[in-house]
Amino acid sequence: MFVRTHATDKTADYAFLAEAVARVTGVPIVQLGRRCSHCGAESHGQVFVSSPAEAASAAHVSLARAGGLVACAVSLDGPVGIDIEELSAVRRAGFDDVAFNADELTALRPVSGVEADRARAVIWTSKEAVLKLTGEGLRADPRGLTVRLDGAAAAVSGRSGIHLLGFEPGPGLVGTVAVRTIAPPRLTLR
């Protein structure tokens, strides 16, 4: 996983992701593509490695932006999704109603202050990372996923083989990487 300052345009962020894939795979020149699993458009949707063939068949990728940072996840173990979020963003009025289901709201009720913001951000980034991994994105209602917090760790119900790994991309931010693998993966921040 790679984190740096968000570029002024998406093209530079995608170049950063391509460089990350090259570093992980050892393939010097990597091309990326996008494809929406819903409509087939190439102007939006899930990012993927399109060439060369050896990198395209081995590497799974995801990208997220928040708080002036861009985070890239590259996995050789299985499909991956990444999300980062500012703690302040989860305080918006009405956010809980569209982001969390009844079980999560019940679990959040006894938590307050900064701990509540952190818990909300962990749950939210976990949901976003899973929905990026599956290619559903926010076409799926995030309340349909249930994320359970167990101390600092998170787990998602109803999605077999998905491992959630939390990280701190920077001050005031929370991040989650979701990877579909048999064995729990390792997270390396570069």
How is the main sheet built?
3 strands, antiparallel
How many runs of DSSP E, i.e. beta strands? 10
Unreliable runs: none
Kindly state the mean pLDDT as a whole number? 91
Could you tell me how far the N terminus lies from the C terminus, measured between alpha carbons in angstroms? Answer: 6 Å
Describe, in plain words, how this protein is organized in 3D:
The chain is α+β, with helices and mostly antiparallel strands and 190 residues long. The protein has five helices and ten strands. The protein has helices at 10-25, 53-58, 95-99, 102-108, 113-134, and strands spanning 2-5, 31-35, 46-51, 60-66, 69-75, 80-86, 146-150, 153-157, 162-167, 173-180. Strands 1-5-4 form a three-stranded antiparallel β-sheet. The longest helix has 22 residues, at 113-134. It starts with a strand and ends in a 10-residue tail after the last strand. The mean pLDDT is 91.
Layout of SSEs?
Blueprint: E1 2-5, H1 10-25, E2 31-35, E3 46-51, H2 53-58, E4 60-66, E5 69-75, E6 80-86, H3 95-99, H4 102-108, H5 113-134, E7 146-150, E8 153-157, E9 162-167, E10 173-180
Antiparallel strand pairs: 1-5, 2-3, 4-5, 6-10, 7-8, 9-10
Please supply descriptive tags for the structure shown above.
alpha+beta; 10 strands; 3-stranded antiparallel β-sheet; globular; single chain
Write a compact overview of the structure shown.
The protein has 190 residues and is of the alpha+beta class. The protein is built from five helices and ten strands. The longest helix has 22 residues, at 113-134.
